[in-house]
Design a protein that fits this description.
By secondary structure, this protein is an alpha/beta fold. It has one domain (2-168): Spore Coat Polysaccharide Biosynthesis Protein SpsA, Chain A. 35% of the residues lie in helices and 19% in strands. A hairpin with a 6-residue loop joins strand 8 and strand 9.
Length: 207
């Protein structure tokens, strides 16, 4: 099964703008991607990164083939899926994911196996149905379940906290500080972020 990892290069993680500058968001996004690629390599894959622009980072070049495609996410992935090959799709903002999570996803016997995000999105897919196409707008988990059902394809959902935890909002950074141990966690702590429990809830602050 081949593996695709889509990533936005020029202006990634816009919802982190309240706490990170554009340059910081780009650097942080590369660190998260490096974590994902390291996990996929350990799980036995040589991923292809579908990047919206060239990526200048040895950590990425050493673990993946980079293919530039500046089309929107769904269009770029569906062009790849048109060949009908079994395909694993893993988002680039899952720095907590571990090899065993990837193995569980990929070894499912279902035609379409979905790892949903906590907000109703789709964080990873294992696709064996040649006619299946993605649609990442809105509540894509539900859309992907319906799309598979419309094709008569079998569907399985993987319930994994690590696969469900994508880093999109400033509040998500707390999960990375608590549970992370890779390049993204190292970058975040090096940039001065730490846990903040002053109001009785776990949040983040920056030194």
């Amino acid at each position: 099964m081949r593996c695709l990892v889509p990533v936005a290069v020029n202006s990634p993680k816009s919802r982190l703008a309240p706490v990170l500058s554009l340059n910081e968001r780009q650097t942080f996004a590369h660190a998260m991607l490096a974590d994902v690629l390291s996990t996929l390599t350990t799980a036995g894959y040589h991923p292809t990164v579908l990047a919206t622009a060239p990526v200048d980072d040895d950590r990425i070049a050493n673990h993946a083939t980079v293919e530039v495609d500046d089309r929107p996410l769904s269009a770029a992935l569906n062009a790849q899926l048109a060949g009908g090959k079994p395909t694993l799709v893993v988002m680039a903002d899952l720095p907590l994911v571990k090899p065993q999570d990837i193995t569980e996803l990929a070894e499912s016997d279902a035609d379409v196996t979905i790892a949903p995000g906590l907000g109703g999105g789709t964080n990873a897919l294992a696709i064996r149905e040649p006619s299946f196409r993605v649609d990442y707008h809105g509540a894509s988990y539900l859309d992907h379940c319906r799309a598979a059902d419309n094709l008569g394809a079998t569907v399985e959902t993987v319930d994994s906290r690590r696969l469900a935890t994508d880093i999109d909002e400033p509040a998500d950074l707390a999960e990375l500080l608590i549970h992370g141990d890779g390049a993204a966690h190292e970058w975040l702590t090096g940039a001065g972020f730490e846990l903040d429990t002053t109001d009785g809830r776990v949040g983040i602050s920056r030194r």
